[in-house]
Amino acid sequence: MIVRAILTTLILSLPGFVQASELLARADARIAIPEPTADHEFKITEVVVKKSERRLYLLNGENKVKTYRISLGENPVGHKLYEGDKRTPEGSYLLDWRNSNSDFYKSIHISYPSPEDKEAAESWGLNPGGSIMIHGLPNNAGDLAFAFTGLDWTDGCIAVTNDEIDEIWSLVDDGTPIRILP
After folding, report:
1. Residues 169 and 98 sit within 8 Å (Cβ to Cβ)
2. Is-above-0.85 flag for pTM?
3. Choices 2.40.128.630, 2.170.120.20, 2.40.440.10, 1.10.3660.10: CATH for 36-181
C-alpha cells in the first residue's frame, strides 16, 4: 500500500505527466458536435440500413448519430421481388409517412415499391407488395417482447424495439432518405 502511494506520487510529479481527466477534457474539446435544430438535438439527413450487419444508422451528413440493432424479413438475403417473399427491399427510398395506430407499436413507411420495383415484379406477373415499414414490436407481444430480439421475424419490414422506434420517430422527419444496403 505504501509502495503504491509512493509510486503514484512520483508518477504524478513527473514533468509532462497528464492525468486521465485532463486527457478526456482535451478529447471532448476536439469532438465536433453537429449544431442542434429547433425540432431535435440533431438533424437526421439520412437513414442507412446495412442488412448483413443487422444495423440501422441515423446520419447527420457523414456523422453517425445513432445506431440500432434490427430484425428483418424472414428471408433477408437479396432484394424484395414480390409480395410474400419475406425479403426486405434494397435500394434508395424515402420515409414518407407514419402510423401511430399500426399493428405494430408505431411504424414509419418506406416508399417501396419504386417505379423500377413495380416494373420488375409486373414483368414476372407478380405484385411487388408494399407497406414496408420501420416499426416496433407487435402490439400483442406483451411479456414475450424479449423473444423478438436478434431474430428475423418480419414479412419484409425493419423492426426495432418499442423504445427505439419512439426515438427514431422523434428524430427522423417525413421525407428523410433511406438507403437499404445488402
Report:
1. yes
2. no
3. 2.40.440.10
